[in-house]
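Why show two proteins at once? Because comparison is the fastest way to build intuition. When a single record is shown, students tend to memorize it. When two are placed side by side, the eye starts asking what differs. So, the first record is below.
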Amino acid sequence: MIEILDPTDLPRARDTGALVADILQTLKSRSTVGTNLLDIDRWAKAMILEAGAESCYVDYEPSFGRGPFGHYICTSVNDAVLHGRPYDYALADGDLLSLDLAVCLAGVVADSAISFVVGDSAQPESLALIDATERALQAGIAAAGPGVRVGDISHAIGSVLSAAGYSINTQFGGHGVGSTMHQDPHVANAGRPGRGYRLRPGLLLALEPWIMADTAELVTDADGWTLRSATGCRTAHSEHTIAITDDGAEILTLPAPARQ
């Protein structure tokens, strides 16, 4: 399903995007050495419910998972890159943490992810991974607009990741959002320009470049959810929800300082 929002729905989409961005930034500030992943999940739950929003994850039960996800946020550490299920783990200095959050507020979903290093011991490899996903995300956003093909966005993202020397897995990528979290079109992190669905004003897209340092192969944890690099290498993941407008694309999940 591809859902096109009415222009009157855009203010609600902005509100949801702002909520997601603010929760992620709060959780980032609290994620220090010794913080437990289960505490991050509890904090996310409290902020979602306090805002009168709903989690898109807690009851999420797609074909590729194992039963309902059962948590309010994805917490992926080091070699984990997607769908990291929170568990009893205390963050260590130098851990590379990715937080992925999707919520629904007033009937509209927004989805965003950030990656960052915990503490003061940042490995150059970790910073390079994060930088590549952030630059690829900006390239994908810059390529988006009315009349643009999905393949144009995929090509823009993939060009940055490939130029940085990373292999690209296209099994999981960006997607449409609206009244539900995962909708068509699928936006792969590599593709051919001029191909695929033509974007229309009112379409919401979650663009999410993610990479692994030395492989494109994923393995699944025993929890049935957490996806890790097959080689144990580090990973990173960056994501924004954007709205296609009459004259371009608007980022809905910017942190508060960037929204001014």
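Second record. Ask yourself what differs from the first in the token line.
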Amino acid sequence: MSRSAQASVPVFKLYGETHPWPTPDLLHCESIPERSRLHDWYIRPHRHADLVHVLHVASGQVELELEGSQHALQGPLVIVVPAMTIHGFRFSQDIEGHIVTLAQPLAEQLGQRLEEQAKVLKHPDYHLLGQAQKARRLATLVSQIDAEYRQPAPGRDRMLDALIQALAVELARLAEPHGLAGSAPGLRQRDRGHEHLASFQALIEAQYRQQPSVERFAEQLGMSSAHLNALCRRLADRSALQLLHERLLLEAKRQLTYTNMTISQVADSLGFSEPAYFTRFFKRNTGLSPRDFRLRQHATDVPKRDAPDQAS
């Protein structure tokens, strides 16, 4: 696909949506029917700058477009869609399954913990679950993720973390017989632009609490700040500074929701020199002060807070 054609493909914030990531969690889980029926069972081709999709199709049919390749598939199967991969779906109305979406920070954490086995999340691919045992294992695991995600319980974060690691390992096992070059023929390798964006996102994940300047990031990547900004706008539809700010905002939301840290402690942990500066930053990006955001989150149950059509 040419660069001009790729530039015309929309960059979505979530599955078929343009509004922000709707949860302070690092993952999102929902059934395929609950979202796709809102779009008449068709999700037009798009890409995400900083999200990884894992679709588990338990039954039903899907017409998959993955990096320009078309595939007519029948469940049970699992589809892996890494960040920056152009993808689209047309589902049959009897489709059953779930879509698990990982925010880039979680994908980076999995890469550090699982190393080789996490590489499966960087390769666009699909895997047919022909063996009944494999199909049952994946279905059970995804069902556990969905149940834990929707129902708040003690240790929820740790349980979800363990389940997502197990999912990545299962996917790596599925990919083993044919390696990680991609079993779906015709899937292209990432170009240097994608590699540079991935390297920038990894630097953000490692350094966002220090809030380096865009110039400092560019220097570490061996390019000018103008080149880095142009790259981010072309591939992620945001500036380099916006990508850094989105990561800071996500962590701020997580700390305000899941910890008892004071506003000053949250501000300090995220590299803000003054709590007032953090408050202005947070309100400018969410429309709420940190205090009001925390009160709203605590007044709402987790399942409601994670409703996919509600913007944070």
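One difference worth noting in the second protein: The longest helix spans residues 156-175.
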